[in-house]
Amino acid sequence: MPQQIFFRPREAWVGDIIPFEQDGEFTLFYLHEERADPKPGTPWHAVSTRDLVTFEDRGLAFEHGSDSDPDFNVYTGSIVRDGETHHLFSTGQNPRRLGADGLPLQLVMHATSTDGMRTWTRHPQHTFGAPHGYESGDWRDPFVFRDEEAGLWRMLIAARHTDGPERRRGVIAQCVSDDLVTWRIAEPFWDPRRYVAHECPDVFQWGEWWYLVYSEFSDAFTTRYRMARSLEGPWIAPEHDSIDGRAYYASKTAERDGRRFFFGWIASREGSRDDGAWQWAGTLSVLEARQNADGTLSFGFTPETRASFTESVPLTLAGTPAADAAVVIDAGDGYRALVSEQELPDAFHASVTLDIDAGTTECGLLLRSSADGDTSYVVRLEPKRGRMVFDRWPRRRTGAGQWEISGDVPFFVELERSCDLAPGAHLLEVIVDGDLCVVNLDGRTTLSTRLYDHPRGRLGVFAGEGAVTVRDLRVAVHVASTGPVETRHPQNQYA
Q: Which residues of 197-216 are buried (b: 16+ CB within 10 A; e: fewer)?
């Protein structure tokens, strides 16, 4: 059966996504991650969509090599079309093969298709690795695009210099070609000497601006973008330069009808626990970028995603007449919360307008809350700090369903986003599906995460040290999702 909103293959996970649009259809190739021991090779699988809501699993799209081939793992790359031929560029890696510097060798590899990407012909003679000055173990994620002004093809590669501080050697290397076959090394495309690596590079033009997207391999592990007036730079770091938070990674883009979409994965957590370590790979999630007047980008749900939630769920906050009636929560110098009388369904879209009074310290939503609002997930807006935070209480689980009420465990610092929270009205939206949660503020700022430890609960609205007027609180579901459903990822399935 097709999956809606989010996609994950059975008994496997979605790794880096390689999107390709043709004739109105997106084919989303992805690294098919099986968490097995011994670990199998990594192939590309594919999923397709036209409406950005319903996803059809196409299964195996590009097989990995044998345990002796250089592409035992087929890692991230890109696909371009030249005439009637599709060209697939990928990263070949085999942990048994080492470079001259002793690192597991990474290679750029090439394949072509002349039957609409149904079958591929490999061209091993076109394989090449890192040249002098670059580490052999970091030569990956080839992104190929046409530079019409220069009349050539450009390939961007996530690479590392052989010199410099260990954690600041990351560079986006560059090769150029006239025929997509013979590649020559060029000057680095972007060389900030700042992070370990800049993975999954992606470049596109939108109006008068060029955009560089990359996933920052550092303590932050997030996808960011830079903007410039030309491919020569200089590349500007906008004030809000990240696409999402820690859980959303390796996002790459595709365009259709003048709209730009970002395709990334929401990471799972070890042991299916809120405090488990983030794991590589997860579930496909789509965001749409919108270009602001100054060229900066905003990120939010697609209209197609919102429109797919068609059936309203009756919801009333305790002590109020109706959920869509305006309610003032005045906490004074304390804290006050209003919690719904009904439990939330397992999958839903919630939206609310919060009109924040000047000087308010905090306000927001409670998700899967207890009736008294004390145990819940928390989407907290902090105007004085200019940030949106995802929190939970209690914050520490000691095992066997027991919780430790302790104030010495902070919220996850990687689950916060800087944002504009000036006094006035702000639209807060949330999509929850089983253990997946994506929050968006004002159609600009997105924060994704997982919800494991509290599978059920109510919706609440709160304010602390100040006041907020709550308007148009609504919850909706898919018609086929009105009742409780089994959580997509059972507890400890992959522990």
A: bbbbbbbbebeebbbbbbbb
Question: DSSP letter at 247?
Answer: T
The residue type found at 162 is T
Closest residue by Cα to residue 484 from 455, 460, 450, 459? 455
Q: Full-prediction pTM beyond 0.85?
A: yes
**φ, ψ for residue 232 (rounded to 5)?**
-80, -10
Task: State the chain's mean pLDDT as an integer.
Answer: 92
What's the mean pLDDT in 287-297? 98
Among 403, 406, 373, 377, CA closest to 392:
377
pLDDT higher than 50, residue 485: no
- Based on its alpha-carbon atoms, the radius of gyration of the chain, rounded to whole angstroms, reads 23
The CA distance from 78 to 57, in Å, is: 19
What gap in Å lies between CA 341 and CA 318, rounded to an integer?
Answer: 6
Residue 322: is its pLDDT beyond 80? no
What does the alpha-carbon distance between residue 133 and residue 130 come to, in Å, rounded to a whole number? 8
**Which one, of 408, 409, 489, lies nearest residue 453 by Cα?**
489
Spell out where 306-423 has E strands: 311-312, 327-343, 347-356, 362-369, 376-382, 387-393, 396-399, 402-404, 416-418
* Residue 407 pLDDT grade (very low, low, confident, very high; cuts 50, 70, 90): low
Written as six digits, the tokens of 64 are: 């990995």
Q: How far apart are CA 38 and CA 42, in angstroms?
A: 12
| Of 463, 436, 452, residue with least CA distance to 347 | 436
Category of 52 on φ-ψ map: left (φ > 0), alpha (ψ -120 to 50) or beta: left
d(CA 444, CA 240): 10
Average pLDDT estimate for 427-454: 97
Report the C-alpha gap between 14 and 47 in whole angstroms. 10
Mean pLDDT calculated for residue range 302-322 = 90
Write out the two tokens for 373.
Answer: 């609002």
> What domains can you pick out in the chain, each with its CATH number?
3-306 (2.115.10.20), 312-481 (2.60.120.560)
Look at the block and give the residue holding tokens 């996504």: 17
Residue 214 — pLDDT band, cuts 50, 70, 90?
very high
273-285: pLDDT as tens digits: 998 999 999 999 9
Query: Which residue spans within 50-133 are E strands per DSSP?
Result: 54-62, 73-82, 85-98, 104-113, 121-122
| Cβ atoms within 10 Å of 101's Cβ, excluding its own | 12
Instruction: Quote the tokens at residue 405.
Output: 């009420």
